[in-house]
């Protein structure tokens, strides 16, 4: 079964392998398959589920609600997010203004068929809205009982510090950040993680398998497998391109004997690696087929020895992105609408 970790400096526990439905529900797979995969996650011991209003333009939340119908609400931890354009994408259908945040939580609760979400997250930083306005709206949502905890996604160290200070003034906790993090993409390690450790904020990391590249199925100089994420525009093909370089793919192949020596599959090694970071509370995983989860959940509770971690670094030398400047390039400087 899956282990649990505390989220930030709180008493709230989440499954350290968390199910995310970014590119699967209402997009990559049919609803029946998505529902079967959620049930497989539950059977494997995953109780924490992450979604967002923007996924499949709100449809992913509805699919998740259908999949979780009949489950004991108190035994689930359900996360969603607000920021990106949804619906007809009007001038206030985007960002972190008070209007969009309040419209967002009401819409998400309606689609998820919930009275509250456990964690409500700012999907990006909004440079066009005063941070005080954003944090006040989150404070009101917490006081109204519509969200129990507040988190963010892809905020810089400085933004986390400012947001954390305002949250404390307003009487609630900022408990989490949701950044991209994997063996190949380590930009949070230089500034974001140290600031988060100081502030009592955990990371909920997405793409721990680097969009599937760390599975080892993409081979240098070879055509990509049919039906893989790299071929499907609906399932994140644009995100994976940054890793689809021969030097990266060659380095990833050097991980295969290391995984075998550790008695792990490549996906298990990738997920176990991010969970070695004590500031990581959860690794977000997705699946298009139920059987994929049976493999990945076995990464829970795995300890990678120092010699293995050093060998991984040696294998990937020269292809890892660990420049902290990358954390400043994620949130758009202006809204998209």
UniProtKB/TrEMBL annotation:
The keyword Glycosyltransferase does not apply. Pfam families: Aldo_ket_red. Residues 17-315 form the NADP-dependent oxidoreductase domain. Keywords: NADP, Oxidoreductase. The keyword NADP applies. This is Aldo/keto reductase family protein. Belongs to the shaker potassium channel beta subunit family. The lineage of its organism: Bacteria, Bacillati, Actinomycetota, Actinomycetes, Micrococcales. InterPro entries: K_chnl_volt-dep_bsu_KCNAB-rel, NAD(P)_OxRdtase_dom_sf, NADP_OxRdtase_dom. SUPFAM superfamilies: NAD(P)-linked oxidoreductase.
């Amino acid at each position: 079964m899956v282990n649990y970790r505390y989220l930030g400096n709180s008493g709230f526990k989440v499954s350290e392998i968390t199910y995310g439905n970014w590119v699967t529900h209402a997009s990559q797979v049919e609803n029946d398959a998505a529902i079967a995969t959620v049930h497989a996650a539950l059977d494997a011991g995953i109780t924490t589920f992450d979604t967002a209003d923007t996924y499949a333009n709100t449809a992913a939340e509805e699919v998740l609600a259908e999949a979780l119908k009949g489950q004991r609400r108190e035994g689930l931890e359900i996360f969603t997010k607000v920021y990106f354009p949804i619906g007809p994408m009007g001038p206030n259908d985007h960002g972190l203004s008070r209007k969009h945040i309040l419209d967002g939580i009401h819409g998400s609760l309606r689609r998820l068929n919930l009275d509250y979400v456990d964690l409500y997250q700012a999907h990006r930083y909004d440079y066009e809205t005063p941070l005080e306005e954003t944090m006040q709206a989150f404070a009101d949502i917490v006081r109204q009982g519509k969200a129990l905890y507040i988190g963010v996604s892809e905020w810089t160290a400085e933004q986390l510090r400012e947001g954390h200070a305002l949250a404390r003034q307003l009487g609630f906790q900022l408990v989490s950040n949701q950044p991209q993090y994997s063996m190949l993409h380590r930009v949070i390690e230089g500034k974001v993680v140290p600031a988060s450790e100081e502030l009592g904020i955990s990371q909920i990391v997405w793409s721990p398998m680097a969009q599937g590249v760390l599975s080892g199925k993409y081979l240098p100089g070879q055509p990509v497998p049919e039906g893989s994420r790299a071929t499907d525009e609906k399932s994140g093909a644009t995100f994976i391109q940054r890793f689809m370089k021969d030097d990266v793919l060659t380095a990833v192949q050097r991980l295969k004997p290391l995984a075998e020596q550790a008695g792990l599959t490549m996906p298990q090694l990738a997920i176990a690696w991010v969970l070695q970071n004590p500031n990581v509370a959860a690794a977000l995983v997705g699946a298009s087929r139920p059987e994929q989860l049976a493999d990945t959940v076995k990464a829970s509770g795995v300890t990678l020895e120092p010699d293995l971690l050093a060998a991984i670094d040696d294998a990937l030398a020269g292809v890892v992105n660990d420049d902290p400047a990358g954390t400043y390039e994620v949130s758009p400087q202006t809204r998209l609408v």
